[in-house]
Give the backbone structure.
Amino acid sequence: MTAEATNMRSSLYKTDARTKRRNAAEARFRVYGMMAVGFGVLALVVLLSTVLGSGFSAFRQTFVTLNVPLDAQVLDKQGNRNPAEMAKVTTIGYGNLLQAALVAELTEKGMHPEGMKAKDIGGLISKEAPAQLRNMVLANPDLIGQTVTFDAYANGRIDGYFKGRVTMESAALDSNVSPEQLQLADAMRANDMMAMKFNWGFIFGPDASELRPEAAGLGVAILGSAYMMLIVLVLSLPLGVAASIYLEEFAPKNRFTDLIEVNISNLAAVPSIVFGILGLAVFINFAGLPQSSPIVGGLVLTLMTLPTIIIATRAALKAVPPSIKDAALGIGASKMQTVFHHVLPLAMPGILTGTIIGLAQALGETAPLLLIGMVAFVRDYPAAPPEGFMDPAAALPVQVYNFTQRADPAFIERASGAIIVLMVFLLVMNLMAIILRRRFERRW
Amino acid sequence: MSIGLLSLIVIALAVAGYLIGRRIALAKAGGDARRLHSLPGYYGQSVFLFTAIPALVLLAGWLLVQPVLIESRVSGMITAADIPEGSNADLVMSDVRRISTGLDLVLAQGALSEADLDTMRADFSDVRGRLAEVGVALGANVKPAVFQAAKTYRSAATTGRWLMTGAVLVLALAGMAYALSRISPEFRARNVTEAFVKTLLIGASLVAIMTTAGIVLSLVFETVHFFKLYPAKDFFFNLVWNPQFRGGSDLGIWPLLWGTLYVSLIALLVSVPVGIFAAIYLAEYASKRVRAVAKPLLEILAGIPTIVYGLFALITVGPMLRDYFAQPLGIGSSSSSVMTAGLVMGIMLIPFVSSLSDDIINAVPQAMRDGSYGLGATQSETVKQVILPAALPGIVGAILLAASRAIGETMIVVLGAGAAAKMSLNPFDAMTTVTVKIVSQLTGDTEFASPETLVAFALGLTLFVFTLGLNVLALFIVRKYREQYE
């Protein structure tokens, strides 16, 4: 560019006004193009960095580490360690235990704040912690009588304070937390009674109620999504491949084939929410399948994914050179044998790549799942397949939506965290597709 | 017997059939495979297919039809007097279903025996309490007729199950026997198997037609249902959208259409210039290296799930637009607005416009560029006066496809555009769209047969017709005006 410019200057040729204008227009046009590409790339970077950036903190959570004496007098009055009888002690009993343990520990370390009520001190601990302690004890009654070290979730507001979401000023206006509690939390953190740790519960735990953001996890949603992907894979791969083989290799050119082709290309462009309506009307209302179950979600997503897989499979089948078919037919193979023994294996990498991309699309799809009841609040893990396909479950993208609909700002962080998990799955699937393509794709 | 177990048994039978069929074929040929018409495996395959496929098809069909039949039989038992005030037959039927599953659970827990159940009557025993113990909650006490209906429902479902198991197994065995009886060295097993497989392939490709039919039928059916409850005239000409829980709603489509078109317009205003300029730059100007990096990066935008864009609109773009544009200018105070949703959707649509346009620009032959350069045109003049006119039909097609995406997009508008149905010109106002209302009407607590819920199907049909129209138009333009280059 610069070389040209100096050349021009030293040349005898004088650029007239019109040429200058044209050259300027040329340069402007080029800049517009660069700006457009730049805008697109910048949008991508901003999108990913803001959403992902605000989600990383969801993986770390504030825990209160406590030594809890599991008093047999309170937890097991009969003393025979029978879980059925011990179950009579509700979470309130365990909550009192945790509260007493915390107060005792603070008093022992001389950190007990003057005039602070025991209830307020207990408020530092999540309401979910007693339930977890109870489950732990009921699963292992031998713990009773011992003093166990227990990592309890800190209250969501305390966690928010350490993550910068809650400040002293906002706490003063907040009925759920007081500045005194935050000061105590600071002191406890300095004394290693409270610490930020990696929160496995966020990935594997079930969802929690609106008032306990600190305990909300993605376990049920991940399992539900996995079930749905399994159904989509099992149904859409054979169906899609079969349909593509027919259309590409056997179908005569006639009206009927045209009708199928037009249908497939139209289905690929139908808005996803319409598939949700279809699922609601046909699978739930007509066929009577249970709401918010992975089977309905899987069926709806299968119908959505089918066009993608068919289009990819047909391209892969088309790419197999005719000479291979001719050779097989020439040595006496039937048409069906040619297709299944020679064309299909050669097209397999392309088919699998298309399938994985279709699955990735299905994994991120939200709108149709909202309509088939997947927005329901589900805390129980679905059972193992195949019965589990009928159990209510959540789905990862719908869980993101659910988190955004809750009032507590702590859920925004968790929604972003859920998106990170979703994106990791998508990334892995797309990488798999790329690797498959690189390793097995043949060029003839 | 559970359905999973039943299908496993059928498949096990079919596998056994394969092995037996193969062996019989070989035995009939005296162990010499050359005397058979087909390879021995094909004899086995024919048995496999005849055993498994008809039985599994019957199973699927039975599962689909049985609930409908039982329902129609049981609903006859419930008279108008059994339907409580403010309720309807559908709700009572769902109670019947719930009670019947609850009874199954009670029996499974062993709290009650089959004989106890026969003598149990709703007017004497506490059915509601019993069911609550097993986790089936009922809204009100159970009326005798409803309880009777539930018992009939349960027994019909149980007999149906047994009948189904029997029928499926008999059909599998019959198919197997038939296929086995046909085996002889002259039997053209390969041709039979291949014809069967071809039928299956045709069946698979019919799924696409059935899906479309399912979509159209369910939408049309429920829309007709809706128009019986709510006049079509009001739906199409009322300018107010105001659904009420207790009836008397205004369900005019115009505010929703307005919001949809406004959001789509903004999205296209963002994505079309950016997409086309990006496509031109990548196709005409960019070096190979820039292209190799920038094109996949832009295409990532198309692979990101829409819920991610929705969250981006909700937590980043919305508050930013409100704090830096709308509030300082005094033209809006809501973080969800047409502008938010449109902007974010525009970003999402960039790759749809750019990828397609890029392909089309690349398809314009080099000779046309060379001709233009030869006449002294600059590169941008070539693009503007030669390439774009040649590529125009394709680009218009790409824009129409992007528009159809924009109209059907759901999550971005659910999280970004707001829920207030109004017709305003201010892009910083929160407005709502057709898709948002489909979601909110179908995920709410209103009963299914009310116009407030059924309107979602009419909205869905509108959406379907719109997007279908745009797609067909795009296809038509691309086909009709495509330049044919040699």
Remarks:
- Residues 59-198 of chain A form one domain.
- Chain A touches chain B through 88 residues (CB under 8 Å).
- The longest strand of chain A covers residues 60-69.
